[in-house]
Records
---
Amino acid sequence: MASSEGTAGARRNRLPRRARSVNKGRSSPVSARTRRGLRALMATCLGVALTITPVAAGPAAADTVPAPADDPFYKPPTPLPDGRPGDIIRSRASAFTLQPIRKTPRADVKSWQVLYRSQSATGEDIAVSGTVLVPTKPWTGTGGRPLLSYAVGTRGIGDSCAPSYTLSQGTDYEGLIISAALDKGWAVAVTDMQGLGTPGMHTYEVGRAQGKAVLDIARAAQRLPGTGLNEQTPVGVWGYSQGGTSAGWAAELAASYAPELNLKGVVAGGVPADLIAVAENLEGSATVALAFLAAVGYDAAYPELKLESYLNDAGRKLLASSQDICLASVDGITTVIGTAFSKFTDYATVNPLTTETWRRRLNENKLGSTRPSAPVLQVHGRIDAIIPFAQAETLRKNWCALGADLTWKVYPLAGHAPGIVRQVPDALSFLSDRFAGLPAQSNC
């Protein structure tokens, strides 16, 4: 999810020349390339916000890869082959590029697109697509090369928004963050999550599905031949906004769902921890479309919710027109503008949030009931107008009460979009320290 602040807000949140570590007294220099990238990322995020914001296939050039809806690679075999979560169904060489016009791949990074096994929120076996990236330069740090499972933020529910596609086209707004992680020498795995690329509707903001997808692509990266990764590989998780939900759920699920992963640390930023609170905040706002997308995502994950049965004519029209929407597109812009400041009852005969059926499923995906099994850095912008600060602070209190090793950091003058940039140096520093074996400094 992305928010817009004015140019004055952008100036207030400009990154310092030397980024300070989360841990007091430590500093973590950021490379010149990363600093330039972060400045560009700020512009990109604000731009998106203002407009919203088992065979191996052969390699293909970035500019000849079809969109996922037209690419047989994304269509899993039926039935799925036997296996376990994280097993590779198919893979192919791909490209990682930051250049949307020339599409020149980063020459120092090996890239694969993968289709791998995972599970839905209700435990069904599913296929999920994603990307695995490994720097070609040998790892010279402590221990083995770390693996970062990076959870992306909101981009929409259409298949063409899938990160495995946009990262190969140079059009992913988080490509610069992923590039900064690669500059650290880390391998990076990026899940598309359920239904984003693969057939079926994307289960947008269904945390239990997203958390599993994030953990399973780490498993997939370890099992993919040619990566140099294995089960001893140190693993980190990082995500912001929708990615913050995914990261938070990965932190809560890891001990029970993927106990073999060598999870060292998790960064969860701008976290929509309580979807009821988030939806109530979004209703009547400029970005209420995000709540509508979440309703579609929950309906896809839990068919008994029967979203369409609640809709009036306007709601059915909106649902029909939003099946393949990407926010950073003409259709996305039109939808956001067209629904801005509306109420749920403008599109529904009954507000689903008032029903026990919907509230039960939303509360099943509320973070804060399980202690994360690894140190967590949780960050949030104090003036975030999209993802309420209060519900994030409640998550912090709940995790601390459970005994979490939690570092909590607030950016006083940051809204939602500036927060994604403000967190980057802190996240890189936090994960670097965890990969180096240094203890976190909890401030619960």
---
Amino acid sequence: MGENVSRDLSAIVKAYDVRGTVPDQLDADLARVFGAAFATVTAAHAVTVGHDMRPSSPELARAFAEGAAGRGADVVEIGLCSTDQLYYASGSLDMPGAMFTASHNPARYNGIKLCRAGAAPIGQDTGLADIRALVEQWTSAPAGIPPTDRPAGTLTRRDTLGDYATHLRSLVDLSAIRPLKVVVDAGNGMGGHTVPAVLEGLPLDVVPLYFELDGSFPNHEANPLDPENLRDLQAEVRRTGADIGLAFDGDADRCFVVDETGEAVSPSAITALVAVREIARARAAGEDKPTVIHNLITSRGVPEIVLASGGKPVRTRVGHSFIKAEMARTGAVFGGEHSAHYYFRDFWKADTGMLAALHVLAALGEQPEPLTRLVADYQRYASSGEINSTVDDQTARTAAVRAAYTGRDGVTFDELDGLTVSGPDWWFNLRPSNTEPLLRLNIEAADAAAVAAIREEVLALVRD
């Protein structure tokens, strides 16, 4: 096994997680070595391990647990869970955690999301590179994993679903909301496991779509970022006359919102809505100018609304490691991304789509207006969504765009993450993919016509 595994690790150890096809790139033997390396690098006396509904997940999670126990860590196995439920376990039990999931990837994939105690992220620069190095060393050594003088740890089972649901509901008061009809599309992912527990007993008429746990994703990909995968939810909201629709991705850490007309609500608008609520709660507790983190792709309406609500906006690069690092540095109360990842200080600075969903349900149910009216104040500008272009030279194409806009009145540039070009009432960001020969374009302007004009001009330069 050693030679092949060592050669393949570069293909499966990503910037923030481990992800590959089963069993050729990731199998139980390799998962066991990852467990041993994880316990060694974190020097943990105890770790927690959970997994999603993919057919390969139970075997991989158990092998990882056995590897960690073999290095002296007591392992708390929480079984089937969403990624944010694993973060809950890591935070509440104060131990490092491992979640076996490939999120929205196709069924043949699986992977591992890792965190330190308190749900602190592990990425390339915060331990993942060290874990990879140990795995490569041990899988290529004839003797395999070396012996340790620590006694073997124990494996125990623990059900955290009820405690997770109770914790989330303690953070948002839903006791006085009006009755709502809610369509929820779990995409055959872990939302089918967590949504019933979290929403049970609330004045909600829940219409379930694809709650059956099925890692083959028989109905559609569990990736709500692709508009194709929202169509069933949108149709069901319209058919049933629901007040709101919610869509979760495969590991249920992201949540997308559909209004009562079946139209998708921008994650930037949800970021602004939740930010206003979290700022108000923090200010009521005596906090002056609570900080809210937003990445540079979110609408400019987000920092405007944060400022108007008495908060302090902080702009970051795209990606959870940057958001979480800034939340730790600033003590931010909340953070949001255009990809529908929402981060909460009260949830160990980790992302949880479920808690964001509870905030939206509370905001909707506390007042009589429909969701379209409620979010209208938070959707100030027109946007393009993310447009991907395959290019032969990312650097040269980006330079051509910059040159074309240089010298224009009122135009400024910044390079926090890719190239952001800003005008008086518009901006766009052109960002290279780290893993593919792509440039990702996001545009925001005063109206759809302005967005279309910028789109045409920039894509002519990028795709010429």
---
Amino acid sequence: MPDLSGIVKAYDIRGVVGEQLDEALVRDFGAAFALLVKTEAPTVVIGHDMRDSSPGLSAAFAEGVTSQGLDVVSIGLCSTDELYFASGSLNLPGAMFTASHNPAKYNGIKMCRSGAAPVGQDTGLAEIRDTVEQGVPVFEGRRGSVTERDVLGEYAGYLRGLVDLSGSRPLKVVVDAGNGMGGHTVPTVFAGLPIEIVPMYFELDGTFPNHEANPLDPKNIVDLQAKVRETGADAGLAFDGDADRCFVVDERGEPVSPSAITALVAVRELVKEPGGTIIHNLITSTGVPEIVAEHGGKPMRTRVGHSFIKAEMARTGAIFGGEHSAHYYFRDFWRADTGMLAALHVLAALGEQDGPLSALTQDFSRYAASGEINSTVDDQVARMLAVKDAYAGKSGAQIDELDGLTVRLAGGAWFNLRPSNTEPLLRLNVEAADRTAVQALTDDVLALVRG
């Protein structure tokens, strides 16, 4: 039996094309997915990004699905949140071919059940892996058929219907699509809005010739920052490769933290539904639950990861959720993540008043943060235990292990230390009142982590 543990991750399938992932294997994944969802729907919707390998792999997956008697609706080139839209609006299970921000040699599959419900290790992905490893059973009935459908216009219209920009002042916005799917979706979504787009790297190119399509890495937004300053734009937006995440910079070219965006959008959603529940993962700023509570909402803290966020949203009926990684989840979008909808909220909030984005977001940025710092370690468990032991005896320290190790100190500073699921890394996030306090706490923890 093949061992697929190296490519079947916690939330998706991802690997190097030609080495770990090829059309024959993907065909089996398609058949296994069909077996998983066969009782809930007769059809699967499939989309893909702009990587050279994506069309062939998505076609192979479709062959696997139809080999089990299910039909396929192919929506072709799309962003991941456009695939979620198709899954939600058509109430069909779906599969998206993308490796997000990974280099060109990678590809992968993000899958969901009907209504864009997530498929992760505990919700079907382990079952799919087991089916492929053990051999997909042959189906003797009729093969399914494949039809094509373009949902880009419907997707754009749906998003515009959720955020009213009709009263916005004219805005100039630089958009860096990173040669990813934002270059495909942004022109249609923003069509007819009072927004002048200054496009950067809209050409679809899965080799990512300009920079890696990961806007959370500071080096990948340098061009965007410069263009915002050069053009006197009101804001800048950067999308990752499959355009489900969106990162924001203000009119000065300064990054706006995803925590501040989470708080801003949460306040807007609470206006629509006072008293609603807002999900935030445990690495978002302490300012997020503070601001949510101040505006009458119910903050709910969760583990990191979209499957946990979506599960909590379903359990609590939450109206919105945000993560430090610039994933934003909306109940009005089938609890799925869409950076595009978050971007529209930011621009609507900006356009409703006369001040600059830096002033608007300042109210939502209360503390200083380190960002995520990775350390390669020989023994994750031993290093985590060393940090826990060092802080357990400190006066006023509060320790919890909801996701990794979180330590809150007297005075409000805190840090979270989490092991990577796929690499020998520990990930550290620190927050405190100011940069000096953040650096001091970061240095203390890293000294323990790195020995």
---
Amino acid sequence: MKKRWDGKFLYYFGGIILSLFLCVGLVHMITGGESRDEKTELAESSQEKKSGEQPGEKEKENQKEKETDGKADKTVIRVLLRTNGYAGEVHPNVSLSAAGGLTLEGTKEKRETKEGESVTIAPDDTLFQGGTIRVRPKKEGEKITISSLKRGSGIPSYRGELELYQTAQGIAVINELPLESYLYAVVPSEMPASYEEEALKAQAVCARSYAYCHMEGQAYPEYRANVDDSTAYQVYGNSKEQEKTIAAVDATRGEKLLYQGKVVKAYYFSTSCGRTTNVEAWGTKVSDANSYLKAVKVEEEGVCYEQDLPWFSWNCDIPVDTLSNLFGLNTGQDVGTISQIEITRRGEGEVALEMKVTGDKGTATIQTENKIRSALGGSGYEIKKQDGSVAASAALLPSAFFTIEKNGASFHLEGGGYGHGIGMSQNGANEMAKRGKDYKAILKMFYNGVEIAAN
């Protein structure tokens, strides 16, 4: 009996529950009710259709905004400050000061200095515990002086902030600052402030473009530094800021060289021989991407802009014994006493691309303008400029635009220009400015097919 009653109870109870579910569902359908999530989904779908958007476009827009923000944030450059003479990367110690005092902050400790007070940081300073040291001027906009460092203009001072890294060899010093502020100390270090206003503007655009491209990566990833302050990148802080050079940077604020819509490295050099060359001089294959760097004639109506400048042409006589010794030292190849040197291949603008050297112990072939200039460079002879002045030979031959022939017990070189010869001639730009050319006309002559824009 009990089993039969339990079975009936379960049967009736299940029927009641099922009936209740059916009733609730019927009421829900009649009232047109939806869950909150369903309402939200329908509303968003309707809004997307009204606005012509497809699902996912909002997410794409948000991502695009994030990417744009990332680019907008790329206005700060980090520069490794090398030691005296740009000889090394790390300093034995660093002495710092600022007119209004400094704040030095480590991970676990913070210090402050008084107005004008100098502080010296050694590699074993307790501020390094747990990380780097961030150095800021107390008064916004003031410069930080590094009295333990020497540059061409004396003791340098830097805008922005410093970050000090402890290494096994000493302290690496990174200067972090806005790109435009960086250019204030690059332009006068790369071009004399006495040059024409339009030439300085051209230099500012070149320097900004070059720096911007290097900000895409890190030359010193261990310090998160984009560049250093030497000629390996752009000379920075070697000369003091000048009103004229600051004005040139401000007048071109944000402007860069674009080729096919992309910012390009605007290479430049000192003086041309009336023509420039392309990247083949460096052993780089010429491509569509680098064809903005083409050989051009630096002239107007057949007259070279730089024809009256001292380095426009030069010559030198190098004794055979001197050149033989220099070649061995510079290249590590002992060909003995050199009997013949032949330029076996030239590039655009007649730059030397390949040189064959023959001696009593063998032959050697040198390629690219830099290696050729290096092979024939060094101390022990003089170079005569076209104005009659004389300069001592240096580590590099003035340029790779030259001819060479044996003349008795010496080799005679006839050459022209100073520098690698790719991109803008700085003295050419100045001479063009003297003749009324503006900075955009100057840049468009030296760089093929470029646009100048603040992107």
